[in-house]
Design goal:
Blueprint (H helix, E strand, L loop, with lengths): L11 H22 L2 H25 L5 H18 L2 H10 L2 H6 L7 H27 L8 H28 L3 H13 L15 H8 L3 H13 L6 H28 L2
Helix pairs in contact: 1-6, 2-3, 2-6, 3-6, 3-7, 3-8, 3-10, 4-6, 4-7, 4-8, 6-7, 7-8, 7-10, 7-11, 10-11
């Protein structure tokens, strides 16, 4: 007599990993079928980079080296804006009843959240790479070695994960897809209130306090230092603290909210 394996007797870890991979694949297929989000996430940072480098760059740095200063800020602006839209996909799944359908299946329900976040991370890293390639074409000349490039991408990835989990909170609280999208406007303007395009030392004192004490500034400073060969200083510790601390808190909150919303 041959024994059969029911879904409930499968190893839990293997089951969970399989469910997460399935959800990641589902979300990536959505991206390929609706590439408008990817196109927007590319057009916006490239347009901003060209604007600051060629329109404002001459006034900010007459030596022509402003592109090296601006590119790290553009990368974080791009990554943050795209990551802030993660919650929109979750809200869409909630209001259209897709999540209810998933709950009727023998899957690890938390894989729905993880699938959205990881798929968005992969999409973001691809767009970040493409933005860097365009930056190289317009004169960006990084001095980073292989390890520094890997560290820079690691910091960008942590920032993406932090913003993505924060976005999930808004996606779970919102009743409509449009409501979930409001979070992206907040994140879009966050890098402008940082050292992304001008040093914080040039800002008024009150504004500088805000700029020096928000997540984008240490993240940008760390990426800039890694790519340009400058001393990292304590910006890396602050960047990791913000990304890991705030990201972990957002993960816990979004997990609790997801359970509450889907148990109604």
């Amino acid at each position: 007599m041959t024994a059969t394996t029911s879904p409930t007797t499968r190893p839990s870890l293997r089951w969970a990993v399989s469910d997460v991979l399935t959800m990641i694949g589902r979300k990536l297929r959505h991206v390929l079928r609706t590439p408008d989000e990817l196109i927007v996430s590319l057009i916006l940072p490239i347009t901003m980079m060209l604007l600051f480098v060629f329109v404002f760059g001459g006034a900010l740095d007459r030596s022509g080296g402003y592109v090296d200063y601006a590119v790290p800020g553009v990368l974080i602006l791009s990554a943050g804006f795209s990551a802030s839209q993660t919650g929109i996909g979750l809200t869409s799944d909630l209001v259209t009843g897709v999540v209810d359908r998933f709950r009727s299946l023998p899957i690890v329900v938390s894989s729905v959240l993880t699938g959205h976040v990881v798929a968005n991370l992969l999409r973001n890293l691809v767009s970040t790479t493409l933005v860097i390639l365009v930056a190289l074409l317009i004169g960006f000349r990084p001095a980073a070695n292989v390890l520094e490039w890997a560290a820079a991408f690691g910091v960008v990835a942590l920032y993406i994960l932090m913003i993505s989990w924060l976005s999930m909170i808004f996606g779970l609280l919102a009743k409509t897809v449009e409501g979930a999208g409001q979070f992206s406007f907040v994140i879009l303007f966050l890098p402008y209130l940082s050292s992304a395009f001008v040093p914080t030392e040039t800002m008024p004192d009150a504004l500088r306090v805000v700029a020096d004490n928000q997540p984008a500034t240490p993240v940008i400073e760390t990426v800039r230092a890694l790519l340009t060969g400058s001393p990292v200083g304590n910006s890396a510790a602050w960047a990791l603290g913000w990304c890991v601390g705030l990201g972990a808190l957002a993960f816990v909150i979004s997990s609790v909210l997801f359970v509450r919303r889907t148990s109604r």
